[in-house]
Amino acid sequence: MTAYTKGSGATWVGRSIRRLEDPALVTGRGRFTGDLAAAHWVRFVRSPVASGRIGSIKAPPGAWIVTAGDLAGVKPIRPMLHKFAYRPVAQPILAEGVVRFVGEPLAAVIAASREEAEDVADQVIADISATAAVIDCRAALETTAPPIHAQAPGNVVVEGIVKTPGFDDAWNGAYQVVALETRSRRQNATPLEPRAGHAAFDATTGRVTLTCATQMPHLTRTAIADILGMPENQLRVIAPDVGGGFGQKMSLAPEYVLLVWLARRHKSSFAWTEDRRENLIAAFHARDQYISLQGAFDAHAKIIALKADIVTNVGAYSCYPTTCGVEPLMAMAELPGPYDVRHYECRARGVLTNTCTMAPYRGVSRPVITFALERLMDKAAKRFDLDPVEIRRRNLIDAFPYRTATGLEYDQASYRQTLEMAATLVDLPAFRARQKQARAQNRHLGVGFAAFCERTGYGSPAFAARGMDITPGWETAVVSVDPSGFVEARVGTSPHGQGLRTTLAQIIADEIGVSPDKVSIVHGDTDRAPYGWGTFASRSLVIGGGATLAAARKVRAKLVRIASHMLEAAPEDILLGDGEARVAGTDRSLPIAVLAREAYTQTHRFKGEIDPGLAEQGTYDPPGTFSNACHAAVVEVDIETGRVKLERFIVAEDAGRLINPMIADGQVHGGVAQGIGNALFEEIVYDETGNILTSTLADYLPPTAREIPPIELQHLETASPNSLTQAKGLGEGGAIGAPAAVINALNDALAPFGVEINEMPATPQRIRALLRNAGVPS
């Protein structure tokens, strides 16, 4: 029996209950886009060259093929910023006149089966006159580089510049300046389920239903309706079970636009599921950046100023809706991280190249800027003869709220506390003794730390500051109790594996006094869910959860009023829990199902004082909140082969109130695994002409369970005043800190050889090249 207390019983939030969505998924009853049958299957013919002029596209006799010439009146994808010298560039749905990267869609082949469509597509001949391509973003800045788009001379499509007052004086007064150049190579999110779409025409209503693997169903509907010039009420978008998104499924894919166009035009159903090769060459990439970073320190190793030049390869086009500004502008705004930096100068540019378009991927720019900043801190520690914990201890922010040099406000957090937790687990003195013994045996161990903060759950003010033409942010939820007492929440967020159905149900259960299994979460269907912005940027539990909590509180208040009337007690004496309303201090109670039925079928009893029904709406648009963590890695490097083995990985994390600790742990574990891949394994490789050399999972190497050590995880819970649920986002944190911690550990292991690596991924080949140049034999 629940121990009743006034207000919310809070009996479900904070518990590691099993995920409500898992039984269907683990028993093969999940609903994925690729499972749907269709009258027609689509296969895209993609450009085999990175840059060229299209002469002709010829299909075999009898083939059904669609090219750009068939799409009269269809607008291109053209996202827009109104700041930062942004130059809008347009992406046609199918390449028109020219091609700009290997994998760009040239044509669509339609056939009765997926296999037949693929066979026909292999016979399509595209006559393309290759032209000079530029692959590297620094090369694209050269005056002799070919322009990718005429609208962006010089190939710079977005540029941000910041310089705080008094910067020069602070810089010139530095005791030491530490500098480094970092390089983050290109990645692909590689979700378990590649992109897929299914568009079906309904002859009765004249509507099209697009089922697709997307993170933003409502905005997908809005964008496609705009591009095709159709009313939104003629298009329904459904995101069913989605096998991972990680940001790659957030941006609008031109393939989905074509599917809807085909369904409307031919009044039938059309399906497309990309294969892994398509995903690796043509789905959105991420992380391709150079950062030149300098830090000015005083005599006590306190950082007084940062100076950065950031060059980001954004690919051939700009992603919708965030635009290609998402990586360089985030890097510029958030680079100072968790450190007390009062003076800051930065130039951040997004540069067009003949490569696949870039888009957000778990953490966006923060794994890269954290890598650069944490490498700087380790280099500074050596310069000042300090250990890596001490230099961070001297520089981490410890008073909140704190306004950064770029104007961001950090809410209450635990930057120093998480550092100390990680340091305690590592036991640095003991590790150094073990490291010394290992070196005597020609074994090379290293330890690395990475402290960071993660901006999460930020609403429309943050996006408006970027000058976005499409300004996302807020979320809406509608919570209702039906006459049988079961609860339904319709939410605009659209999860893709994070356990959101469970955590939202826990929040609602505590407010309404029922168990989570009595709560149904409806999402990912534009016909049923309220307009919302989907799932990205560690926002769902902060913003979607806040909207859900606001709606649930309204429902709770109404239930209390109904119970007060029926039990003839004061509202302040009504307690909700265990599926019933009880009068405090008595044995009088009524099941919540009875209250719900009264709300619908006996409204005359309330004499107009209580409106009929039990459905309430909540909307939430917060300023944002910052999670924080410290990661630590212990590695061993085989200097003969360059192989890196992770011995330990430690996470001390503060994401505010944990709604479900088990799910929180899973989010961190998954992010850390991706971060380790970022640090050591994963790289999209182009040759000098723009051909992708990593088009299979034999060449592009995500980590496996063999490469991931047990993750030692500890949580702090600093409640945030900027979050209605007091939770902070944590979906991206694991991926943000892990690369820096691993590569700092790698450099610590290599320290006796006088080499350092400031590039991700730190592959065995790159490690051996450094050692070879230092005269270390294999």
Give a description of the structure.
This protein is an alpha+beta fold and 778 residues long. The chain folds into three domains: 156 residues, 2-Layer Sandwich (Aldehyde Oxidoreductase, domain 4), CATH 3.30.365.10; 173 residues, Aldehyde oxidase/xanthine dehydrogenase, a/b hammerhead (Aldehyde Oxidoreductase, domain 3, Alpha-Beta Complex); 327 residues, Aldehyde oxidase/xanthine dehydrogenase, molybdopterin binding domain (Aldehyde Oxidoreductase, domain 4), CATH 3.30.365.10. It is 28% helix and 24% strand. It has 19 helices and 31 strands. Helix 14 links the parallel strand 22 and strand 23. Helix 17 crosses helix 18.
Helix content: 25-40%
Q: Which structural class matches the secondary elements?
A: alpha+beta
Distance from first to last alpha carbon = 67 Å
CATH C-level name of the largest domain: Alpha Beta
Total number of beta strands: 31
Low-pLDDT regions? 1-8
Mean pLDDT: 96
Q: What is the annotated CATH architecture of the largest domain?
A: 2-Layer Sandwich
Total of helices = 19
User: CATH superfamily assignment of the largest domain?
Assistant: Aldehyde oxidase/xanthine dehydrogenase, molybdopterin binding domain
Query: Would you give the CATH topology of the largest domain?
Result: Aldehyde Oxidoreductase, domain 4
What is shown here, in short?
The chain has 778 residues and is α+β, with helices and mostly antiparallel strands. The strands form 8 sheets. A 7-stranded mixed sheet has the order 3-5-1-13-10-11-12, sandwiched between helices. A 6-stranded mixed sheet has the order 7-17-16-15-8-31. The chain has a 4-stranded mixed sheet with strand order 20-28-29-30, with helices on both faces. Helix 5 (217-228) links the parallel strand 11 (207-212) and strand 12.
